[in-house]
Every structure is written in C-alpha cells, then in structure tokens.
Design a protein that fits this description.
The complex is a heterodimer of chains A (226) and B (412). Chain A has helices spanning 47-54, 77-86, 103-108, 122-132, 148-160, 178-193; strands spanning 4-15, 20-32, 36-41, 62-67, 70-71, 88-91, 166-170, 197-201, 213-218, 221-224. By secondary structure, chain A is of the alpha/beta class. Chain A has one domain (33-59, 76-224): P-loop containing nucleotide triphosphate hydrolases (Rossmann fold). Chain A has a 6-stranded mixed β-sheet with strand order 6-7-8-3-9-10, sandwiched between helices. In chain A, α6 (178-193) links the parallel β7 (166-170) and β8. In chain A, α4 packs across α5. The relative contact order of chain A is 0.21. Chain B is α+β, with helices and mostly antiparallel strands and 412 residues long. Chain B has 2 domains: 3-53 and 273-410, no CATH class; 57-267, no CATH class. Chain B contains 12 helices and 13 strands. In chain B, α2 packs antiparallel against α7 and α7 packs parallel to α11 (375-402). Chain B is elongated and about 110 Å long. The model of chain B has no long low-confidence stretch (mean pLDDT 86). The chains are: A alpha/beta (226), B alpha+beta (412). Chains A and B meet through α2 of A and α1, α8, α9 and α12 of B. Bound molecules: adenosine-5'-triphosphate (ATP) and magnesium ion.
Chain lengths: 226, 412
Amino acid sequence: MEKKLVLTNGTKKYKLKNETITAMDNVNLEIDMGKLYVIMGHSGSGKSTLIQMLGLLDSLTSGKLYINGDEISNISEDKKAELRKKEIGFVFQSFYLNPKLTALENVMLPMYINEKIKSSDRREIAEKLLEKLGLENRKTHYPKELSGGEQQRIAIARALANNPNYILADEPTGNLDSENEKNVYRILKELTKEGKAVVIVSHNENIKQYADEIFYMEAGKLRKGL
Amino acid sequence: MKINDYIYLASVNLKRRRKSFVVNVILISISLFILICCLSFSNSLSKAMNRALINNISYRSISAMSNKSIKTEELVDMVGSVEHVIKVVPQMKYETALEVSALDNENFSGNITVYGGNEEIYPNIIAGRSFYDDEKNVCIVPKEFYLFDMNKYDKEKSIDGESLIGKSIEITYYSYEYIENSAPIKKDKYTKTLKVIGVYDQDENMMNVNECYINFSDISDIMDIRLEGNNYSGIDTQGVTAIVDSSLNVNQVVETLESMDLRVIVRSVVNEKLIKIINLTSIFVSSVIMIIAFINITISSIKSIEERRYEIGMLKAIGYNRKNIIGILVIENIIIGIAAFIITIIISLIAILLVREKIFSNNISLKSIGLDLNLNTSMVSLIIALVVPVLSGIICSGKITKKNSITLNKER
Ligand SMILES: Nc1ncnc2c1ncn2[C@@H]1O[C@H](COP(=O)(O)OP(=O)(O)OP(=O)(O)O)[C@@H](O)[C@H]1O
Ligand SMILES: [Mg+2]
C-alpha cells in the first residue's frame, strides 16, 4: 500500500457554551512522501486545527482520515497513540519539551514505547539525531539552558526518534530569530530528501522557497496556492 | 513498554522533581504517622481495658454451694463439668490469710491474704512475670503492696511491689490439734519462703493491697497441714470457687449452676455496656483518623498528578498511550508511598518506644497499657500508603489522559 496521509471532507467544529465554531470546513488534502507542504493563513483561520487533525492529536467532527490506505477517523485512542508513535512526528511552536529531562533524555523519550528499538540502542540513536541537528555539545543540557532554536531542534530530533514517515510542524519557527528559522527550515527540507513527508504550518513568507506545495487556509477552508 | 522502563522513567521523574517528591513523602508520612500513633494508642488502650475487664479474675470468679450436704470433692467435679469453667477449687483452698514472718530475709510481722492461681488464672501482670502451672513457692504481689503489720498499724507504709521482684516473703503457718467443741490448739510451726516474681494492679483487679497470688497447689499444701485431723467442722461440705474463662460467660455459667440446684455468689459483675462503649469509641476514633489520613493522602496524590498535566499532554503527543502514562505516574506514587511508609514505620517505632520507655514506664498503670506498634496497624497504614495513592493516581491520571495533548498544552 502506498504511503500517504489523506484527509477527505475533514470538518472540525468546536462546541462552546452557546456557539459552535467551525475551525475546519470540508478540507481535502493529500500528503505524499518526500514532499514539503506549507500551510499558510491568517491567525484563527484553522491552520493549527488542520495539522492537529493530521497529527491525530484531536478527532474530526466529520470527514475521513486515511493513513497508508487505512481509515483511521474512528479508531480507538490506543490505536491512535500507536500511530502517533510510529508514523507521526509532531513539532510544536512551544517546543513542548520536558523541562526536567536533558536534551538527550527528551530525544530518547519516544523510544521507550517503541518495541522495535532495543533499550541498548536508544542512547546511540538519540546521540546520532542530536549530532545530525548540530547539538552534539548540548546532550546533557536541560531545556532552560538552551536557546529557543536549540530547543526547537531538540523537539525535531525527538519527533524523528522513532523514524516516522510524517513530520508535522505547527509554526516551528514562531519563537525563533531569522537565523535559527532558516536553520530549522533547512533541516526539515533535508528530511524530505530522506523520503519523509513534511507539513509545516506558518505565516512566514520565507518558508515558501522550501515548499513543494503551498496551501492557504481561510476561515476553515483550504485552498491550494501557487 | 517494559516494566523496568516504567520504573526507570518514574524514578528519573522523581529524582528531577526532588523538592515535590520530598514534600509529598513528608505530607503522606505525617498523615501515616498520626494514623499509626492514634491506631496504636487506641488499639493498645482498648485491649488493655478489655483485658482489665473481661479477663479480670474478680469478674470471673464464682462461689458455688450446695443446698444438700454433698462432699466437696463431688461438688468440685459437678461444677468442673460445666462449660466455660476452667478451674474449681474448694473455698478453703482458694483463699486464705497468712502470717508474714520475714520480708527480704529481715524479720517482719505482718499479714497477707493469698489467692490461688496458675498459668491461666492470675491477674494481668504489669511487671515481672506470671508463674508456670506447677511452679511452687512463688508469688505475685500488688503494685502497691501493704503487709498489714499486726503490731504497728501504719497505713502510710506501703511497699512498691515492683521493688520486691526477686526478693522473698517468708510465711508462717501451723498444724492444729482439733478437739470437739473447743478451739483448736496450735501444734507444729511451718514456714514457707515465697519468691516474688510478678506485680499486678490491685485497683484494676479490685483487690486489696495485701492480697497476693500463689499457686493453687501451695495453698492446697498449706491447708492440708492446717486441716489435718479436723473431723468436726463440716470441712467436707464446703463451697467451691469456680473460675470462668471470660467474664462475658459468667452469666451463662451462673444459670447452669443454678439449674443444678446450687447456690451461686458472683463476686462482682462486669459492666458489658462499658466494654461496648470502650470498643465503639476506639473504633470510632480510629475510623475518623483513618478517613482524615485517607483524604489527606488522596489530596496530595491528586495534587502531585495534577501538576503534571503539561507533561501528560506531551507524552500523549509523542505516542504514549493511556496505559503507559498512568503506569509511570502510578509507579511514581508507589515509590512515594513506600518511601513514606518506611519512614513512618521507623519514626513511629522510635516515637512509640520513646513514649513507652520514657513516659509510660514511669507510671505502672500507663505501662500496663502495653503501648505497641501492632501488625494490624502497620498493615492498615501500608495499605493506605499504597492503595490510596495508586487508586487516586489511576483515577486522576485516567481522567487527565482522556483530554487531548493540545488542551493540556494550552492549560499550562
Ligand atoms: N479548543 C478550542 N475550543 C474552541 N475553539 C477553538 C479551539 N481551538 C481553536 N479554536 C477556534 O478555532 C479557530 C481556528 O483556530 P486555530 O488554532 O486552528 O487557528 P490558527 O490558524 O492556527 O491561528 P494562529 O495562526 O493564530 O495559530 C479559531 O477561531 C479558534 O478560536
Ligand atoms: Mg495556530
């Protein structure tokens, strides 16, 4: 079965006390391997909502999501966790690191639940990932001892820990300066060359030059860009 | 995920959050400590009270006499066959007054009353020990011992019973020549040396300050000598004293004996209501303390997990399932519980020993409470220290892990 992530007629409504917000409205999207997708749009347009649905962090109100051909819109929480572990690496704008763990430990964290990685290999894999992201000298540092850019690279290393096919990043450079921003984009672009699919949400115009495909989100609707 | 990975992650988490780990352990330890101390104290106290009331010899002795003239030996057999009666002795051989001729090897002139006892029938010993079934020439004295001195009646001069342990009391008695219709004449003089081996609380047992316990067979020996040749005073038709196994069975025994056409006198009646009140009070106090400890530990366990919402959301996002996350948090709570339990047991043991040895030991009545850290109390606290954090951990983290990581991230 061909590896791809497909969303059809994806709709997400948030029910509040006396109103219902349609954050994502009938979105169709296909994510193929080896490509970098950029989703742009104004604040509140539903970009985060969309990428969270792709990352199985929340469930659709209606519509269907397929991963590698399997429909997964209605699977159990445990199966979703299993897919998040194996197939998806999610990168948050706020890094979402464990402040009590060192860089290396943060990167090793996803490997404890991966039966395919031997416990004796975890450290080596994590070290290699940190090296790859230029953090070999920051292994024993805690997040608070690191710059925003370094923290984001650790978050990316962690997202790669279990070697997933899909890397999803929600404004990964939102908290970074332009130097670090470029660095992160280059790293993410590099991953597509290894055959991974990368989806980046951003409202930063600089990302466009790295994109294979660009989409625009407007009031919950997705439109293909140039 | 393997169990050693769970334990590793849990221990790393605790190590890196040393402050909140220590605070949690201390909070749980305090609750457990109060629980253990209260349970131990109320347990020991109500046991001591029960012992004092239910096992009290005074509440368990009955005198029985026959309306017909049957031989004492027959009466002993009759009464002895009744259920719950553990010892029957002829009245004559149950209790007698004796002269004291020497105390701790010094001449003395006093008077004591002795009661018969054996391994299972003696008052609650508060110092020293009780005697074995066939141990002769030993005696158990009251804690506030007063040997009535025939010559100088001086009530102030009581002796600390405990100070006599290991020392000797020499008693004197006589054989007699019995002549019909006239007072018996003293014949030969006998002495017997009793070694003091134990002390009982005369107030608790409603006895007098000069009443001691010696072996039934010692009284029997003395009385055999005293009564030898007495064929005139109806010795054969004396009443008997029966000892019942528990004061709670006295009523039943009395009914049976009365149905056998015997006259029964009960020395004193135990107040069963009082026993019930003591037990209920102890259960009530223990329950209240247990509930408070339960609530305290639940709150601190829940708090320690609530603090981790952000981390729980992160773990979910990277693919940990609910079982993984709950497992890690529960193991953390188990480690906290075990640490708190061990610390509490050690501190409680020390505290209880200190109280017992330094405060209670100075007062023989407090000492008789026998304050102890008993197994039940420890088990209860172990269960509370483990089950409560584990259950509240499972329930609380179960709830949190149902939320999605985005919500948990935003809640920070
Ligand atoms: N948990 C929620 N409950 C209710 N409404 C929500 C929730 N999350 C998002 N929304 C609403 O859904 C809409 C889309 O939100 P979303 O976070 O996807 O926007 P966004 O495009 O990522 O914006 P930004 O660029 O500011 O991050 C917004 O109007 C927001 O108020
Ligand atoms: Mg957003």
